[in-house]
Amino acid sequence: MALVSQTGSSSCIHFSFVPPYTARKTKISYAYNAGVGKMKPRPSVIVAASPPTEAAVIATEPLTKEDLIGHLASGCKPKEKWRIGTEQERFGFDLKTLRPMTYEHIAKLLNGIAERFDWEKIMEGDNIIALKQGKQSITLEPGGQFEHSGAPLETLHQICAEVNSHLYQVKEVLNEMGIGLMDIGCQPKWEVKDIPMMPKERYEIIRNYMPKVGSLGLDLMFRTCTAQVNLDFSSEADMIKKLRASLALQPIATALFANSPFTEGKPNGFLSMRSQIWTDTDNDRTGMIPFVFEESFGFEQYVEYALDIPMYFVYRNKRHFDCTGMTFQDFMAGKLCCIPGALPTLNDWEMHLGTIYPEVRLKRYLEMRGADGGPWSRLQALPAFWVGLLYDEVSLQNALDLIADWTAEERQMLRNQVPKAGLMTPFRGRLLKHVAEDVVQFAKAGLERRGFNESRFLNDLVEVARTGVTPAEKLLELYYKKWGQNIEPIFEELLS
Fold it and tell me: Per the record, what is one GO cellular component (predicted)?
């Protein structure tokens, strides 16, 4: 879901992948020459600490579009510094009643983890809302979905060890509370009204706005879980290649990891209901962003796209101001009705970028956003898939060659059809499973060339692509056969 993200932040405060700004005076100066031009040095500004609740935000001079472009460009780094960031969300539930975890449960869990395993607590008023430890964080989505955001790491083996350590720590506390975590892309039993909202000011603003721009926004907020992979680029040209390849192939990842076929106790007609929900949430900020495939695309075009997307809120004076319906362009001109005359900082820009939800999101790194939540034993293939494709030059070129003549209409068709048909989606006279088999092999070869003995992480995915049977279809088979059309056994089946 990842609502209201900032620098490594997904909905609350999380520190995966890119280190946050610290509160300090800083000269904004970018050495950037990748087809857009050099950034001029700017006067000093005070940039808020991350999380934004920890410091005041003061802008001394308006930002320019060049500042915003330079901010994205500052993410470029040489290949030897590329890292892998992961995020996974899970539903908490009472093991006896199967009801959703309440905030009281969550507060006890976060406090227990902090005290037992030396995590730093993040507070909003009197409420504990997140934990951080180094560059890892634990945060909460609106309906209490429990999210782990990992540190930027070099290998898939390191990621696997980090996630396993996280799950061990969480279970140590949860087992004493009678609470379990469930690995699935969409809440299979409870209605939105049954799910408590977390006590965070920003979520109230978003909850009020969502029904104005789509019919499924509240389902998104309260009933979905995702898994995400964050990857680096070396230059504007490298970013363009990776964004195009990952955007065109994102429906394949959605199909391979489809894991949300139930809603309110019954099959919902989709293999990835989570993915379907995004199609009617807020079309201003979601989708396949076709302009990425235009010849003129680069950092500047993405900035122009983001400038015109309506904002959610601005944080000032220890509160969130509702700025829904106004754009960042308005903010830069000092024309926000909610806080007249206020000017943005780069922290505001970073937060705004995190409220845009295309299938692949560009910040100072790229976020792969197409996969349902699921068991870590299977989800470890997700970073393997994208690292094998995007961090190896041969595999990346193979992917670009594969999609070179795909039309915007074909890419959109895949996005529309995959949530329902999965790998059985017809495409160019064959099935998407056949394309997926080729793409998984590209990824496997890329991992082998990396030389870290990582290709084994793709074993489960190779089998999904070969058979065309998604995790969702396996759950449906259990529902109709072994479970006798009773949804409750799924809580045990997908227990973390």
Answer: chloroplast
Q: State the pLDDT at residue 27.
A: 32
- Structure-token pair, residue 83: 């890292």
Other CB atoms within 10 A of residue 389 CB: 27
* Percent helix, percent strand, percent coil in the chain, to nearest 5: 45, 20, 35
Residue range 61-100, pLDDT digits in tens? 889 999 999 999 999 999 999 999 999 999 999 999 999 9
- Using omega within 30 degrees of 0 as the cis cutoff, is the peptide bond preceding 51 cis? yes
Please give the Cα distance from 336 to 355 (Å, whole number): 17
Burial class (CB in 10 A: 0-12, 13-18, 19+), 468: middle
Structural contact between residues 358 and 289, judged by C-beta atoms closer than 8 angstroms: yes
User: What angle is formed at CA 110 by the lines to CA 177 and CA 102, rounded to 5 degrees?
Assistant: 60
The span from the CA of 299 to the CA of 490, in Å, is 44
Q: Which two tokens stand for residue 288?
A: 């396949």
Q: How many CB atoms lie within 10 A of CB 429?
A: 6
Residues 261-274 pLDDT 10s: 999 999 999 999 99
Residues of the chain with pLDDT under 70: 1-60
∠462-224-375 over CA atoms, to 5°? 35
C-beta neighbour count of 66 within 10 angstroms: 18
The dotted CATH code for 65-309+356-494 is 3.30.590.20
- Interior angle at CA 406, CA 400 and CA 409, nearest 5: 140
Give the separation between CA 164 and CA 415, rounded to whole angstroms.
Answer: 32
Q: Where are the alpha helices (DSSP H) in 146-257?
A: 156-177, 201-213, 217-223, 236-256
Q: What is the pLDDT of residue 7?
A: 33
